[in-house]
Amino acid sequence: MSDEQKQKRVGMISLGCPKALVDSERILTQLKLDGYEVVPTYDEADVVVVNTCGFIDDAKQESLDAIGEAMRDNGKVIVTGCMGKGGDAERIRAAHPDVLAVTGPQAYEEVVGAVHEWVPPNREHNAFVDLVPPQGVKLTPRHYAYLKISEGCNHSCTFCIIPDMRGKLVSRPVGEVLDEAERLVAAGTKELLVISQDTSAYGVDLKYRTGFWNGRPVKTRMLDLCTALGEMGVWTRLHYVYPYPHVDELMPLMADGKILPYLDIPFQHASPDVLKRMKRPAHAENTLERILNWRRQVPELALRSTFIVGFPGETERDFELLLEWLQEAELDRVGCFKYSPVEGARANELPDHITPELQQERWERFMETQQAISARKLQRRIGQQLRVLIDEVDEEGAIGRSYADAPGIDGQVFLNGFSGCKPGDFVDVTIEHADEYDLWGAPVDNR
Ligand code: SF4
């Protein structure tokens, strides 16, 4: 077989957040449709696509290192993703002048076009179109999938450059999102993870236009989307929700078990002054009152959040307010970052930057406070029965997650010595032990 007749092979390195992972999946789906084979090693690949992350400087460095590795071990590299725009694109070209092409985020056609240009597909292999699964290529295990409902963001948080990189909010038509969800469920997905930059803003740009799904009208709106997803009989988990009043409307769906009683809300801080300087969406809301109100309706509601400590101008009093807020809010899962300047972000120009030593001290105090809260909350789980979705099974037992744990970022439930299940199974578990992050238990029927 001549070189032209061989099926062309593409390697992919996907860095960054779940949203970037969804972009990688779309690129790979298109490349498979075009007749390429996706391979897992540099050696086998005719070309390597690196999907970069440019969120913070550490992520940028990781992306540059990944490009360097792909250049060294393969030599034919196309770069895409968040670093593929503006000054970052120049930085890539300066560090790695021999990359074949640099394209920006969501530039599917451009990156696919670059692959075609440098490694033209063998058209005879169009039979491979039939081998692309209807739900597309998924980089997550088959039993869970990210469902991206929009791109971009209408906010202008001062520490963030995502709106500059990804543009204003563009919601996907609701019928298209629901069709994708249906295909995923038909292909075995048990958990849909709804992602975007701002899930509560879904449909704002389309003025909540009425779309159609299975011949019936559905509004392009978070509540209507969640109601329809709730009919699919799988777990639906919401990420990147802001604490706006209309989020209250989701509580009945959670109380009825239609969607998971779980919300990932990036609060980032609790001091009104800091939130104002961060220009956070919904910063004027009384978030504690809102949380209490939600919990009155859905007592088992699990809340996940992330915070930034040491933001410019954060006073000791601001920080104490944050700790007091944490004590009251009793969130279930919490991540905390020390503020670090991102090239191009407006927060860099704010006065009174905090020294690294003070940032570290505050981060440690924050983590200590939250760990105690988390440990206390997980202790209360002992003796409860929880439904667990199994992620992994090996000779030591099974590992899964309850409704309170999103994959990759939250805790896990360990079923030591139990391997009578497979990934994607639901197992009812009695919780026997807990630490500050994870739970251990045994299947209810096996006790
Ligand atoms: S809400 Fe703020 S932090 Fe989130 S993407 Fe938009 S601007 Fe960035």
Strand count, sense and barrel status of the largest sheet are: 5 strands, parallel
* Global mean pLDDT: 90
Number of strands: 20
Helix content: 25-40%
**Tally of DSSP helical segments:** 12
Distance between the termini: 59 Å
What keywords describe this structure?
447 residues; 5-stranded parallel beta sheet; 5-stranded mixed beta barrel; globular
Topology:
Layout: E1 9-14, H1 18-33, E2 37-38, E3 47-52, H2 57-73, E4 77-81, H3 86-95, E5 101-102, H4 108-118, E6 144-148, E7 150-151, H5 162-166, E8 170-171, H6 174-186, E9 191-195, E10 210-213, E11 216-219, H7 222-229, E12 235-238, H8 251-255, E13 262-264, H9 272-278, H10 287-297, E14 302-309, H11 316-329, E15 333-338, H12 356-379, E16 385-394, E17 397-401, E18 413-416, E19 426-434, E20 439-443
Parallel strand pairs: 1-2, 1-3, 3-4, 4-5, 6-9, 9-12, 13-14, 14-15, 18-20
Antiparallel strand pairs: 7-8, 10-11, 16-17, 16-19, 17-18, 19-20
The structure holds iron/sulfur cluster.
Iron/sulfur cluster is lined by residues 153, 155-157, 160, 162-163, 197-198, 281.
Describe the structure.
The protein is α/β, with parallel strands linked by helices. Helices cover 32% and strands 22% of the residues. The protein has 12 helices and 20 strands. The chain has helices spanning 18-33, 57-73, 86-95, 108-118, 162-166, 174-186, 222-229, 251-255, 272-278, 287-297, 316-329, 356-379; strands at 9-14, 37-38, 47-52, 77-81, 101-102, 144-148, 150-151, 170-171, 191-195, 210-213, 216-219, 235-238, 262-264, 302-309, 333-338, 385-394, 397-401, 413-416, 426-434, 439-443. The protein has a 5-stranded parallel sheet with strand order 2-1-3-4-5, sandwiched between helices. β1 (9-14), α1 and β2 form a beta-alpha-beta unit. The N and C termini lie far apart (59 Å). The model is unreliable at 125-130 (pLDDT under 50). Iron/sulfur cluster (SF4) binds at residues 153, 155-157, 160, 162-163, 197-198, 281.
